[in-house]
Amino acid sequence: MRSIVFLGAPSQKKLEETWKESYIDNDWAPLSQRPNLTAWRQLPSQAEEDLEPAADDSYLVPLNDVEGAAQDATFGQENASVASNLTSFLLTQPVNYCFDPAKVLDLEDLLASPISSNEPGIHESFPIAYTFMAAILSPPVMEQKITKFNTEPIPFVRLMVGDHTASGFEIACWGVYALSIAQECRVRDVLLFQDISLSDFRGRIQAKTRRFKSRISILYRVDAISKQDRRLQPTLLVDAQSRRVQEVRDWVMRWIPKDSGPPSEQTQPLPDTPNTTSDTFNSTRTHLDHSTMHAT
Fold this sequence. Notes:
Blueprint: H1 12-18, E1 59-61, H2 68-78, H3 80-85, E2 91-92, H4 107-110, E3 116-117, E4 126-127, E5 130-136, E6 142-145, E7 154-162, E8 169-174, H5 176-184, E9 189-201, E10 204-208, E11 215-221, H6 227-230, H7 240-255, H8 279-283
Parallel strand pairs: 8-10
Antiparallel strand pairs: 1-2, 1-11, 3-4, 5-7, 5-9, 6-7, 7-8, 9-10, 9-11
């Protein structure tokens, strides 16, 4: 007897439209990380008593954010109902991480990248999206920001992260991103940031989330205090994705103490790790887009 397990609870309509019996014979394929698409994959055969699809999974935190100061300002008005109804939710990934390691930058390489790009024939510059992996260095604290474009407060978290190449790098998280990070993430969590843009805020280079585009994945939780937390500690194998996660995990376990407090105003570089807040990195940039708007 063969059991078919449907993961992700698709609607009856989607089930009827997309499922075909011929899929049973398909090769194993990674699950799509886009929750708005229906994707099917075949799980390896195993005894029914051992079947536990949630075991050893890492978790994806798909969140919504705001791009640019103007959109930051309108978030509280246009998306108030969305922000109040959307709570952070977890979407399981396969045991084998399904991101492309070739597209994941170290922080050192990220800081050497341009903020924006100008294509021939286009007068306005546009932000470049980046993907990188880093660990949280200090407890995320949510604030409420009121921008000059809006009188409604917007959830905001200034996330301090680092990896084995650089530390003290800031990520500005807005809207539901800020809500979810403050509720779900902890110090020393290893995160994957996808589709994140860079900005020059008051002469300091930092990253920021992009509205309806960025994705933040919890790849590994160093400090597990519950059974659910232990599901965020998948076995790290020898594949390229696991090796990237292990590099950051081992670094943060070595240099960042458990329950570390917030960093000082002048972030100090960790041993063998360059400080991303220094002017050295800022001086290497030749493509700064000073017209990029950012909430204050």
